[in-house]
Write a structure and sequence with these properties.
This protein has 208 residues and is an all-alpha fold. The chain folds into two domains: 1-52, Arc Repressor Mutant, subunit A; 56-198, Tetracycline Repressor, domain 2 (Orthogonal Bundle). It is 75% helix and 0% strand. The protein is built from nine helices and no strands. The chain has helices at 3-27, 34-41, 45-51, 55-76, 86-106, 108-116, 123-149, 158-179, 185-198. The longest helix is centred in the middle third of the chain and has 27 residues, at 123-149. It starts with a helix and ends in a 10-residue tail after the last helix.
Amino acid sequence: MTDSSVTTESHTQERILEAAKLVFAEKGYHAARVSDIVEQAGVAQGTFYLYFKSKQAIFTSLVDTFFSQLLEEALSAAPIEAVTSPEQMLQQVHNVWRIILRHFRDDRSLAYLILREARCIGPEFEERIQAYYQQAVGWLADYASKGAKLGLVRPLDPQLAAWAVLGMFERTVYQLVVLEGRDDIELMADQLLELELRGLMADGAKGG
């Protein structure tokens, strides 16, 4: 196979994926049909099946790409091994929040589908989403454990802390994407950083 034919095939696949994203965003997963996707992409129905077995297969591809790119970018922005001070940890966590918020905002149509419809497709797809969440929790728990060993994080149950942070992330992006309540990414990242690493209690507040 020549380089030009490989490029053409890649371009065709990308056209179909982009068309699917538009169709799913407009019609929703359940109402969308393969015929709608190929019409949007300007390809024959047989061409679609050269790349994807079904409507669910192409939706799965879109979701996998969305989460794999998000996790790769976010996790690479916060190597705990590079942290030697609280200021460095604050900067890392701030960068992670900014990456997450921007990723969901910049691909809002697909993010909306993931948050509203992905779990309604079936138990197999629910398990797929949960696998990505488990990967994120594993990283968060490891980050918290290593941070505690460095004396930068309180010695909390790392798994519990990880799920709590993930829950905060999930509800925040739901507001950003589904409710569209706000879009000030930098300010949101600043305030989420404060909540995650400093908590709600004001400086100087006295406990009972």
